[in-house]
Write a structure and sequence with these properties.
Elements (H helix, E strand, L loop, with lengths): L6 H17 L8 H17 L20 H14 L7 H14 L2 H13 L4 E4 L15 E4 L5 E12 L6 E7 L10 E7 L5 E5 L12 E12 L5
Parallel strand pairs: 1-4
Antiparallel strand pairs: 2-3, 3-7, 4-5, 6-7
Helix pairs in contact: 1-3, 4-5
Length: 231
């Protein structure tokens, strides 16, 4: 049984290797802020070559490549050998960006996708609440329109938010029609977490871990987000 990728894939592998030797090898001598800046520039170069963000349209900063699982695997293998950074991970790339590509407005795509890809925007997940975990239809955090209809005013609590202490933004489910049936009247909103009216607290786990904390809880007290950030 021949488990090789074939001549075309191996030729592509050599292209990836050559790129990494030229574009990533110098990173070994860098530290701190210099390394951080180098990584950001490296990701841009790798995207220009079609190695990263292959499923994201060029219009929003991706490389927009055809689906090719063999090439994608070759890229993962070669980047892994060189310990070169792949795409940004986390909730932003796995959840926010795919949602915006499918359901977002052009304004939302322009506003959020590039900055999520670069790591400038880090996203927390605002689903679970103290009385609403796997049953998301039980969310009680409320969203009410402002008097002029331009903003959602949010009150309530979210808990077990992954990446919460590092997050700059959150995608969240809020109840905007309290009299609607349980599974209706729920709205998906994006919100900037750096504003008055939002308090975040780390959740210390039984392991006693300190530092960045894996999870945290959020309290919303008349927090605001533009109606244009509703997905």
């Amino acid at each position: 049984m021949d488990l090789s990728y074939g001549a075309e894939a191996e030729a592509f592998r050599e292209q990836v290797r050559s790129f990494l030797k030229a574009a990533w090898a110098p990173a070994a001598e860098l530290r701190g802020a210099d390394l951080k800046a180098f990584i950001k520039d490296f990701r841009l170069k790798a995207t220009d070559k079609g190695y990263l963000y292959r499923s994201i349209p060029k219009l929003y900063g991706g490389s927009e490549q055809p689906v090719d699982v063999i090439k994608a695997q070759v890229i993962r293998e070669e980047f892994g050998k060189m310990r070169a950074p792949m795409e940004m991970g986390g909730n932003g790339m796995s959840m926010t960006v795919p949602t915006l590509l499918e359901k977002g407005t052009e304004e939302q795509k322009e506003l959020f996708i590039r900055k999520t890809m670069s790591g400038e925007y880090i996203w927390g997940q605002g689903y679970s609440e103290p009385g609403s975990g796997s049953d998301l239809a039980s969310v009680r955090t409320k969203g009410e329109l402002s008097a002029d209809g331009s903003k959602w005013i949010i009150n309530g609590q979210k808990i077990w938010t992954s990446q919460g202490m590092q997050s700059t933004h959150m995608f969240m489910l809020v109840r905007t029609e309290p009299d609607a049936p349980k599974h209706d009247g729920i709205t998906y909103l994006l919100i900037d977490l750096n504003q008055p009216g939002i308090t975040r607290r780390p959740i210390k786990q039984m392991t006693g871990e300190e530092g960045d904390h894996t999870f945290c809880e959020f309290f919303f007290d008349n927090a605001e987000t533009p109606v244009s950030w509703q997905v």
